[in-house]
Every structure is written in structure tokens, then in C-alpha cells.
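Ticket 4471: requesting a sanity check on a complex prediction with tryptophan. Repro inputs:
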Amino acid sequence: MTEREGTTTRTVHAGGHRLRALTGDRPTGPLHLGHLVGTLQNRVALQETHRTFILVADLHMLTTRLDHLDELEMNIREDVLGNLAVGIDPDKATIYLQSQVPETAELFLYFGMLVSVSRAQRIPTLKDKVRELRIARPSYGLLGYPVLQAADILLMRADAVPVGPDQSSHVELAREIARTFNGRFAPVFPVPTALAPLGGTLPGTDGSPKMSRSLRNTIDLFDDEAAVREKVMAMYTDPTRLRATDPGHVQGNPVFAFHDAFNPDPDEVADLKARYVSGRVGDVEVKGRLVDVLNSILSPIQQRRRDLLADNPLIVEDVLRSGAKQAQMEAADTIRQVRAAMQIDSFD
Ligand code: TRP
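Returned C-alpha cells:
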């Protein structure tokens, strides 16, 4: 048994096998500190207790990035290396590429019959995406985005889905689909639950509530020391404070949110906050300490990436090959049950 977020989460099924966790990233670009706090640390812990699947959602990229497909290979590579560098162990967790498990598309098609158009249109992230990415004519495929995600989750028969709050409406849809399928055909799927991130949501360097690539307010896991320094020194702080002797605001100040998230010395953070509020420390000192803290967190991650690649330059290929094999086995098993339940296996 483990305790998470105040609720008890079992780690074994009634039937005795380990519970399954599944999560994934869209390969949009390098992983950043927001990913570390929001999901990567969670995954590293989960791989010890759960049968863990991490998928690289390249098919999901087709819903919004058809004109950026040339970046896909590099972004997939970065995503896999990022996961490995923060401590995902491919002997414990299965990392796989969504497009290498074609049963995903088959299950997506079946699930498409179980979701009404109006239900899919009500998913809040659809409107957000259309607005943020200024999509003039949303595709049929984009409407299916959360249905495809449900196919990811249920194809591996996952019980737990560690994702940020922005994804909870998608997990909710996966739960509905699992219940509908199980009730109408046969009990093939566990009803998955979302697991909230352990570390909360990290703000962006510009002070917006969320660190995000599209807002260009990230500090990336593989930014070198100079880049980290430059980004931290340019970080948004307290706009009302003109001199180090002015009393400053800690609340809503991302520099302190970062100290809270990453500084291992709570006494130092408390001291910096007290001096900031009473006008006895300058932004340069507070930021300088943050640069040191971040570099001490990032440098072992970056070292691990170098070691992994030095040890095996084809590590990404190897991890994805063995991940695909494992995921394909699970997928074949699920699809066989699904086709039998739906009686579309008569001539198999
Ligand atoms: N939609 C998720 C995101 O944007 C990525 C994703 C795809 C995912 N399939 C998934 C997450 C399955 C969890 C489970 O971050």
C-alpha cells in the first residue's frame, strides 16, 4: 500500500498482479522543469510500485502539428533521453512510441463509436487548443484527441494515469468509455483513475501560472549553466520593487516559487523571503542562489544523459525497440478480448 495525495492507492489488483500506470508526452520539444515537477518525478517513483508504461504520443502530434513533422524524430529522441536522464529505468518501465503499436488506432476506431459528437465537443481542452493555436478549421482528428488518449490508456489496461490537472477531462472520458464498453460488451477494462502530480504546477519564468513551451517561458532540462543563468536573471519578479531596499512581494513571485520547488534548504528560503519582504536583499542575490540550486539539480541529469549516450549511442533505438515489443504484446491481448467482446472476431 502507498499513500498518495491523501487517498489510499492500492498497488496490487484483487487478482494479485501489480497495478498498471500509464502516462505519456506529446513530443513537442525538449523537456523542462515544469515536466520535472509535474510528471517526471512522479513517474520515477511509480516505476517502483506499478507496472509502468510511458508512451511518446507521436500520433497525437498529428492533430495539431501536421506542418511540423520534420521535428518529430528529434523531439521523440529528446523525450526518451529526458525520461531516461531523470531516472526512468527501461528495465522497470516500458517506454514506447505510440505509432509502433497500431492496435492503438484500431481501438480508437471502436471507441469512436461509443462517444457522441456532442460529448467530444464538450471537452474543454478542445476549445483551448483551437484558441491557443489559432486553428481556423479544427479537424475530425483533433475532435478525437481525447478518444485517442483513452485508447492509449485502455489498450495497456492501465489503472492509474499520472497527469496534470489540465488532462483530467481526458481521463474522465477514458473512465466513461471503459464503463460503457464493459457494460455493453464484456468487462475488459479497468476504470482508470488520474493521479495528481506530487509537485504541483510550476509557473513560467515570465510569471504566467504554467511553464509551457508554447509560451516560451521554460527552463529546459538540458539547458547549460550559461543558459540557466541568463533565463533566471531575466526572470519576472516583483514589478513594484525598484530597489533592493524596497519591501518586496513573495506571493506570485516565480523566483520564490522556484526556490520553494527546488531549493533543498528550507531555512535559506525562509531567510531569503524574510529579507526580501523587508527590503534587505536584492533580486540579484535571490536569483544568483536560484541559479546555483537549479544547476545542482540539472547537472546530474545532464551528466546521466551524457553517460547513457557514451555507453550506448543507440540507446533511444534500443529502448523503443524493446518497449514496442512489450507494448505490442499487451495490445494484442487487449484487442483479442475487445474483438471477441464486440463479436467482430467471427472469421479470425
Ligand atoms: N495528452 C497528453 C498531454 O498532452 C499526452 C498523452 C497522450 C497522454 N496519451 C496519453 C497522457 C495517455 C496520459 C495518458 O500531455
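Notes from triage: The radius of gyration is 22 Å. Leaving this open until the requester confirms.
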